């Protein structure tokens, strides 16, 4: 009998990964390809949706070939994706009308400030669980319809994009919807991704007519919303397409919810933090959508077929891993692995603090005009101090969110499950344990984002029968416990707040 597996397409901010998992949750295939980051103006970030789709096909084929697998051995495909990143495309030709506006993009900050001035923030938060921010898809879609230069599209007339949207000629979606559309021909998203658009009512579980109207997004444009693990499937790949097989596409989760799922945080109070381009700290709050009084987001954690939605509190930190990339960009380091060695070579930052607010600050500050700041430098400051300050900033931002999470949920954190590329750095994991004064648990499989969407798809097709099987798969690679005293850490953390204050409301001209 031929062994079978579940595949996961993990479409992230910097690249696209394809992974294949077996019954024990172990990786049997892995391929990755970066895509171009496009910066047309300061604070603007775009991706080419066509490049992303071409790269997706490439890594799926490459991953299978390198592992000696045939597409027929895949029982299902799951998708996980950079959330909020928004694409508008032509319904007839399937071509994008503009580059994707990436979640980091700040071009709609003025529009968000209009909403604040008009007193609409509370209503948006009540319905969507989100802060009014340029981060989410609503203002991005609005901007494309109002400002994008219409492209000439095959089999479709030219014309004003807003008018064409109203006439049902255009579709919008986050990256999951774009990939599902290209894989199956169906216009579908899952509840977790819908909950990140600022257009979806997370309590009523439907697109909100008033919000669609506010941002001028015709209802015909938005995708059908399905469970994250869907026994009815989103569709199948084309047997005459690039895979040559009809494979169910049956699971989708926004990347942070996928990591929550992959870390088997299925119970109320379970929490994880993913360290990628940004960091995203989620706590499962069960069937209750807990409103935040401390700058967190209320979001949908996941939904299984035929079951109620599980909600989560989320702290979204925009820049963590990207701060390490910046160190590389400005030649302070040669590669990410060097950060631990440089940071260890000094006992402290010598009073230097780095606030990596390159695209504003997310939770719990929510300041779209904050900008990156380094304070406390002297003539004695060396690159080692700046590198260490950057790693400390990742840990301080996580503590900001952890304290807000405890205040909102009433649940005291005893252990934090971590994942993502940066957690391979033992120095950072130990630093994180010290700064939040709690245990850090790093799993054996740290690509939990891809694993989560594989689990969702596999459950939908019966590859795994219960979530208990998935819990049994979760294994700790290493645990980190605090080595510094709370008093010492608290003194350092107090000065972090002073550094953050100096970064706020900096960008006045954008």
UniProtKB/TrEMBL annotation:
Annotated binding of glycerol, by residue: 83-84, 135, 255-256
Entry's Gene Ontology BP terms: glycerol catabolic process; glycerol-3-phosphate metabolic process
Binding-site residues for ATP, renumbered to this chain: 13-14, 277, 321, 421
Highest taxon above the source species: Archaea
Binding site for sn-glycerol 3-phosphate: 13, 83-84, 135, 255
Residues in Carbohydrate kinase FGGY C-terminal domain copies: 272-460
A cellular-component GO term for this protein: cytosol
Pfam families cross-referenced by the UniProt entry: FGGY_C, FGGY_N
Pathway given in the UniProt record: Polyol metabolism; glycerol degradation via glycerol kinase pathway; sn-glycerol 3-phosphate from glycerol: step 1/1
Protein name: Glycerol kinase
Organism listed in the record: Halogranum gelatinilyticum
Organism lineage: Archaea, Methanobacteriati, Methanobacteriota, Stenosarchaea group, Halobacteria
Name of the encoding gene: glpK
